Every structure is written in structure tokens, then in C-alpha cells.
Amino acid sequence: MHETVTISIGECGNNIGAQFWRDCCTQSDLSVSGHSLHPQVSPPSHLFEEQVSSRFVPRAILLDSDPGTLANIRNSDLGFLFPPSAYISGSYGAGNSFGNGCYDPDLLELIQEPLQNQIRIHAEKCDQTPNFNLFHSLGGGTGSGTTAFVLMRLKEEYNTSVFNCSVLPEPDACVVSPYNCILGLNYLIESSSAVLCIDNGYLTAKLGIGEINQYTSRQLVGMFESEKWWIPKYDQDAAYYQRHFYHSETMWKGEIVTSCLVSDTGAKVIQEIDFGNTKLYNSGVIQSIKQQLDRFDLMFKRKSFVYGHSKCMDEFEYVEASERAHELLEIYEKCEDSTLTTNKQIE
Questions:
Q1: Assigned domain for 32 exists
Q2: Helix, strand or coil for residue 56?
Q3: pLDDT at 340
Q4: Dihedral of the CA atoms 147, 243, 218, 259 (nearest 10)?
Q5: Do 246 and 232 touch, CB atoms closer than 8 A?
Q6: Cystine design at 100: which of 94, 171, 201, 258 (Cβ 3.0–4.6 Å)?
Q7: Whole-angstrom Cα distance, residue 25 to residue 248?
Q8: Name one GO cellular component term (predicted).
Q9: What whole-number distance in Å separates Cα of residue 29 and Cα of residue 269?
């Protein structure tokens, strides 16, 4: 299977990543330090690199603008699973601003060179150019803005596929989270091959406190370790619906739980992929995104908080992000008559 480098970005992305790697170790009979508990069982080589003495190291990078979350992981029992060079951080957070996370020169001075070096080192250890998984939120400045920066770098330097696990913010997460979300979505449309949407607000009402990371990780582990797993090749000229914006259904404590709010108007499924415990659907208008876009448009029409939020940015980026998000949703609506495809890429 194609080797894959996983980059966890921001507080949310790294919390998901920590749970994901913990679950991968359990699934593969590894200790949390990466040592094999049963030498006859090997973890998936596309996710782990084998080193000496039956020790396996994740093909992973942990990135954040603020060092706090990474320090918590480094000081936990999971900390020794990753080499010190895997931890890359700025000296302070992005202040809930997409612009700070994406363009702040002080932040980029600290993270750009080590990030590029780590990606290059991972790529050189792979038999072919690796694919990439990005775990992040869209509500915060780092999860939206720094993820956009990473996507731009990957697009420029590697002709490969990128999968995003993107967490949409709760309505009351932060007053400027709709700005961050739609600005970040603009870069997902531009550069990502496939996006799994996780709606934090929608799931908070359905799952217990602290369960969302476990729920998300269970899906990711099941998908990435499945023989059916693939990331569609990015095609800049493809129709927007071929960018593969997915929601999921998975069995959780005896119930089927959907990852986000989707259309209740009977929109047809454009694509379905069955991983057993989890199914991915590329279908209809993802209502969670539409809700964020409605909030974005209402705020931007009034220019609410734009002055403080638009540091390092031009207001044209807001206009472009809104236009592209509207176009994405409109094209999805027109695809309701598309033919169902199962377990294969739309060509």
C-alpha cells in the first residue's frame, strides 16, 4: 500500500492524532513506545517505519503554532513513540486568526524550514512519493490557516494525494470561527484530494464528553488499515464534486452515528465506500458546511470583526472564499442525479 505521512496540525488535530496513533498501536500489538508485543505481527508499513529491535515509528509530523499541546503529548506515555524532530511548533498561538496561522512571518520563520525538512526526510525513506493525511480543525487559526500553508507547500513540492480529516467548529466555538472555517475550506477545495467532514457541534449533542476524538480515530484506523483504502489522485481540472467531500456513518456503542449534518431532502449518493464498520458518502449538500457559510456571509456583509481578523490578509480572500464555497454547494446540488458508484474512484 502507498506510504503515507500523517501531519497533525493545531490543538484539535494533534489531539485526534494522539488518539489515532494510540489506537493504531493497540490494533497492531505495539506498545505506546512503538515496540512490537508480538514479533510475528507487523503494523501497516504505509503508516509505520520499522527501525531496529522490532521498534516501529509512525510516519508522522506533529505541528502547532503554540508549543503547549505538543508538550502535553511529549510528556505523556505516548511521547516516546515519536522522535524529537517530529515535534514542530511556534512560540505562541495564532490567536484564532486564519491570517496569523497562514501568513504570520514570525510563525513561518519558526516552522517552515523544520517542516520542509521533516517532509523531505519522510519522502526520501519511501519507495515512491508518499501520500499525506492532515488532521486539523477549521475553527481555529492554526487548524485553518497553518493547514492552508501546509497544503500550499505540498501542492508546490509534491505531485501527490492529500486526505484531510477536517473538524468543523461548533456554532459558539469562537466569534470568528466561520471566517476561519470558510477561508480554510477555500484551500481544501483548491488543494485537497479528499476531505472527511467531522462536525464538532453536531457530534457533541450525540456523543459523550471526550468521545469525539475516539469516535473519529476509530473511523480513521479502520479506513487507513483497510485494503479498500485509497486517496483519489488530485486533479486540478476535475469538477468540484470530484474533490470528494465526505461525511461518514460508523457504528458507535450500538448505534449508527453520522459525522456531520447532511441534507434531509433525499439527495442521491454520488459515491459510497464501505469499510465495514465505517461507510463514507460523497453526497448532496453537506449542511454543516452550509451553516458555516451562512454565518460567514452574514458576518462579512456587516464587516463584523474583519479589521482585527484580517491581519496579514487582503479582504479579497474573504470574497473569493465565499464565492468558491457557494459554487461548491451549488455543484453538489446539481449532482443529485449522478449515478451511485461503490468502492471505486470516480474517474
A1: yes
A2: strand
A3: 45
A4: 100
A5: no
A6: 94
A7: 23
A8: microtubule
A9: 37
Q: Map grid coordinates 521498534 to a residue.
A: 55
Helices (DSSP H) in the chain: which residue ranges?
10-27, 67-74, 98-103, 105-124, 141, 147-157, 177-191, 200-204, 211-224, 287-301, 306-309, 316-334
**Is this model's pTM higher than 0.70 or not?**
yes
C-alpha span between 38 and 84 (Å, rounded)? 26
pLDDT digits (tens, 9 = 90+) for 141-194: 999 999 999 999 999 999 889 999 999 998 777 899 999 999 999 999 999 999
User: 171: domain CATH number?
Assistant: 3.40.50.1440
The SS3 call for residue 339 is coil
Distances (CA, A) of 254 to 26, 188, 221, 257: 21, 33, 19, 9
pLDDT at 345 exceeding the cut of 50: no
208 secondary structure, DSSP code: -
b (16+ CB within 10 A) / e for 304-317: eeeeebbeebeeeb
User: What tens digit of pLDDT does each residue of 196-205 get?
Assistant: 999 999 999 8
- Residues 10 and 96: beta-carbon distance below 8 Å: no
Q: H helices of 28-97, where?
A: 67-74
**For residue 191, what are the domain limits?**
4-246
- Residue 176 covered by a domain: yes
In a domain, 151, yes or no: yes
In the chain, the number of structural domains is 1
Per cent of the chain over pLDDT 90 is 63
